[in-house]
Amino acid sequence: MRQRKNKYLTNINPKKVSERLNELIKKTGLKQYQFAEKCNITAAALSTYLNKERIPESAILARIADFTNTSMEWLLTGKTVNEQIMEKGDEFHNQVLKDMADEIEIWREKALEAENLLRSTQEVMSVMESGGDYKDADPEKINPDEVSLLSNFRLLSEKNQEKVLEYTEDQIRVEKSKK
User: Which fold has domain 7-79?
Assistant: First the structure.
């Protein structure tokens, strides 16, 4: 009788399956015919699997796996389901790490922008506290960061403008206390 080809088992190595079956038989301490009986298969069928002639059908693999407390995946591939998941997981985790690195870079850039904005705000507050008035300032003496700061400040809600002002005042007090 000719064995039907299973399209899902095309990359399975019969020699390796045979080696794993032999390993299981040795671990049980049974003779081949006893092992076959326990798995509800004929000794002749087991012999064809052990001689690398055929790979057991899934129902037989299931019985062998059940009797030996292993998995069908291990019988066929030598890997446990967890190992297979880990391999796929490594690919997934690598992608997650790459995505996280990209996100970190974006947030780093935003933090630098915020730091620059804070620095500009502190400079403006310093000028204002020293009696300077930006309303009367010469536009040519205002640097691009200061223009950006003022533009961004105007985009904020009143509540957030108050927070920025409070924060800059606190920072100015800290700076003064250091002197």
Answer: 434 Repressor (Amino-terminal Domain) (1.10.260)
